[in-house]
Automatic annotation (TrEMBL):
InterPro entries: GTP_Pyrophosphokinase, NT_sf, RelA_SpoT
Keywords assigned by UniProt, alphabetized: ATP-binding, Coiled coil, Kinase, Nucleotide-binding, Transferase
Residues that span the membrane, as ranges: none
Pathway: Purine metabolism; ppGpp biosynthesis; ppGpp from GTP: step 1/2
Annotated GO biological process: guanosine tetraphosphate metabolic process
Protein name: GTP pyrophosphokinase family protein
Domain annotation RelA/SpoT: ranges: 50-171
Signal peptide stretch: none
Organism listed in the record: Candidatus Limosilactobacillus merdipullorum
ATP-binding found in the keyword field: yes
Family: Belongs to the RelA/SpoT family.
Any Pfam family hit: RelA_SpoT
Subunit structure: Homotetramer.
Gene Ontology MF terms: ATP binding; kinase activity
Amino acid sequence: MGSVFELVENWQHFLLPYEQAVNELKVKLRGMRKQFQDQARHSPIEFVTGRVKPVDSIKEKMVRRHVSEDRLEKDMQDIAGVRIMCQFVEDIYAVVDLLRQRTDMQILEERDYVTNAKPSGYRSYHIVIEYPLQLVTGEKKILAEIQVRTLAMNFWATVEHSLNYKYQGEFPEELSARLQRAGEAAFKLDEEMSEIREEIKEAQSMFSYRKKAAWESNEKRDQENDNDLERPDRGGGAQ
């Protein structure tokens, strides 16, 4: 690989495997969620998003972390990023266990910021994986970061990320303190939801059952209508 400036001219080619990895991981993780739903079981996965780190962010991080172009693929673990949102804190660890059991990826590192929050108040569970891609040129192993968090944690992190752009990471002391308090409040909400999670899951299960029954009824009605259209006209029609 050439200099950083030569690499910049080939970003699209360089990032293509990362885009493929993100797309494949999203499909697989969403497939896991659907398997739980098809079995009428509570899914620890609420929804899944993913992205490839923007070029400007990669370049900025290369400078900030002193990452050379020849070490980029090895030293920058989050060029490919996938985020899994959960309803409950317990779901986070259920998802982590599911990922540990998979044979189509290798976990290289785990960082539990749920139990051990960052000083800023940030909470999430980070997993760095090595994911094998099948390319026309052969197998290529890609590093990717999977973040697992609750909806409340994600709300806090999204707000903090937006403020980071404004203050470039140098928050005023009062704002930093308020963010920390907000992070604790968000986690307190998660703890309260965990206390009543069985009630919530039961209510959601009842709703899902009714929704599925209505969907199956509509499917049956659609099929009957299709069958009616396929029957020959017995009225004779126009002569």
